[in-house]
């Protein structure tokens, strides 16, 4: 169904999306999608494009957003676009000013923008910026954005959907220090704040994803041949959460990985050292 092969069919079970329920739940609402110009964000924008909604799409590549706006508005949705690098404080402030000029504000925020980086800590000795820029987009940017829109989300009884990663629930892996730390930081912040938001009528959804076939993974040769989700499949999962208001989505196998991360921590840390030593020798 999603172009899955072999193990992917078992690892990533299909999602049934009720378009009628989705349309009723979102009719007349405004949905903000960050990182909307490619991958998951792009697929979600096109999926919602045939519904009676207002989409606000933000990403760095404004020219791609212009093309998406033209295509999507032919399907029925209204689209507003804003080109910005949300890591940049001035561009973030400009986007927030743009956002607050919306008459009805925002009803749903999909926090999708992010940066992945795989690099040995030894190759990062002179690259402190790897850590600051990863934290900037994966942690500080969504915190700044959500703090700004919380009052209107409370007024509208809105929803925040956070696109997270299974790595926040598993034992950390070598080469991923910058990425895993930044995603775990925001996941902890989001889960800590969620009860306060829920008490005020704001729905929250955390979606924990494994590897997804997006342009972000292309530069990493180690990803080639590894099972990965189809971004359209992920878009369906996100859209479904907008009418089910499900608090958490995770692959069926993640709890087993969480248990193994606890029980096998000592064994993993020993074997990881041996693996890295053998890798260095070879």
UniProtKB/TrEMBL annotation:
The lineage of its organism: Bacteria, Bacillati, Bacillota, Bacilli, Bacillales. Keywords: Oxidoreductase. It holds the Pfam family adh_short. Gene3D superfamilies: NAD(P)-binding Rossmann-like Domain (3.40.50.720). It comes from Brevibacillus brevis (Bacillus brevis). Belongs to the short-chain dehydrogenases/reductases (SDR) family. PANTHER family: DEHYDROGENASE/REDUCTASE SDR FAMILY MEMBER 7B, DEHYDROGENASE_REDUCTASE SDR FAMILY MEMBER 7B. The keyword Oxidoreductase applies. SUPFAM superfamilies: NAD(P)-binding Rossmann-fold domains (SSF51735). InterPro entries: NAD(P)-bd_dom_sf, SDR_fam. This is SDR family NAD(P)-dependent oxidoreductase.
């Amino acid at each position: 169904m999603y172009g899955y092969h072999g193990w992917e069919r078992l690892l990533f079970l299909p999602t049934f999306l009720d378009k009628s329920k989705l349309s009723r739940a979102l009719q007349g609402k405004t949905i903000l999608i960050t990182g909307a110009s490619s991958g998951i964000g792009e697929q979600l924008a096109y999926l919602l494009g045939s519904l009676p909604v207002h989409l606000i799409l933000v990403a760095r590549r404004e020219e791609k957003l212009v093309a998406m706006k033209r295509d999507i508005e032919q399907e029925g949705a209204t689209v507003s676009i804003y080109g910005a690098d949300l890591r940049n404080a001035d561009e973030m402030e400009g986007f927030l000013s743009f956002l607050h000029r919306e008459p009805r504000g925002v009803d749903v925020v999909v926090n999708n923008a992010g940066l992945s980086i795989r690099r040995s800590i030894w190759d990062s000795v002179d690259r402190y910026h790897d850590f600051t820029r990863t934290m900037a987009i994966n942690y500080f940017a969504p915190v700044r954005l959500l703090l700004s829109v919380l009052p209107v989300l409370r007024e509208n009884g809105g929803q925040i959907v956070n696109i997270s990663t299974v790595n926040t629930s598993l034992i950390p892996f070598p080469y991923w220090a910058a990425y895993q730390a930044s995603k775990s930081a925001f996941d902890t912040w989001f889960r800590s704040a969620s009860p306060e938001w829920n008490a005020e009528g704001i729905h929250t959804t955390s979606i924990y994803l494994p590897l997804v076939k997006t342009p972000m993974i292309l530069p990493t040769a180690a990803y080639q041949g590894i099972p990965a989700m189809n971004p359209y499949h992920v878009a369906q999962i996100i859209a479904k959460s907008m009418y089910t208001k499900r608090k958490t989505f995770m692959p069926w196998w993640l709890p087993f990985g969480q248990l193994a991360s606890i029980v096998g921590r000592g064994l993993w840390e020993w074997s990881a050292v041996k693996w890295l030593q053998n890798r260095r020798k070879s």
